[in-house]
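Student: I would love a firmer grasp of how sequence relates to backbone shape in proteins. Thank you; the sequence and its tokens follow:
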Amino acid sequence: MGSKALYWYNTSDNNWFNQNSWYTDSNHVTPAGSLPDASTNAYVLGTVKPFADLDTYSWVDPNAINVGTYGMSLSGTAKNVATNFQGSGTLSISGSITIKDPNPQ
């Protein structure tokens, strides 16, 4: 089974876990009604950088996250994140998060 694509788009709310910010198309017309999962390639669009509080919500590592040009912020305590990050935006991390290689050799 191949990876599906979901697009995060918002112009005011930066909550990664807000299902209303996820779309199945890059034109942000068709709501996804769900959050990214392990089979998802997630793409960040819009004019605000999404923030994921890994201590408050249940984080599921997407297959890949393209942070676009706006970037993304992660916060958490003793969390492991194993996903492929792509894009030219900045990935900001606070707390004790470890980014692990999702495809170790």
Remarks:
- The CA atoms of residues 11 and 47 lie 5 Å apart.
